[in-house]
Amino acid sequence: MNALEIKTNFHHLIDQINNEHLLIKLYRIMEQASSTPEGQLWSRLTEAEKIELLKIEQEVLSDSNLISNEQMQTKHQKWL
After folding, report:
1. How does pLDDT run across 51-70, given as a tens digit for each residue?
2. End-to-end alpha-carbon separation of the chain, Å?
3. Predicted TM-score of the model (pTM)
């Protein structure tokens, strides 16, 4: 996905949200993220936090950690 597609999808997603409190939270997150120079957040993390985030990234990218939609639906059927 390129930047234009991401922006378009993001706009569509926001347009579908009617929860004002959620919109305020998202707005504040985006406002803070857009005013924070790139890399500043990373530099404020402790070494342990950086290691943990890199570990999480590796886990997310690993296909062995994927769960099928059917498995998730079965697992959480009582809430669906």
Report:
1. 999 998 888 888 887 888 89
2. 30
3. 0.45
Q: Taking every pair of C-alpha atoms in the chain, what is the biggest distance, in angstroms? A: 44
pLDDT of the residue at 47: 92
Q: Where are the domains of the chain?
A: 1-35, 43-67
Q: Which long-range contacts (CB under 8 A, 24 or more apart) does 73-80 make?
A: none
Q: What is the mean pLDDT of residues 38-52?
A: 86
Question: Can you give the chain as a three-state secondary structure string?
Answer: CCHHHHHHHHHHHHHHCCCHHHHHHHHHHHHHHHHCCCCHHHHHCCHHHHHHHHHHHHHHHCHHHCCCHHHHHHHCHHHC
77: its two tokens: 């059927």
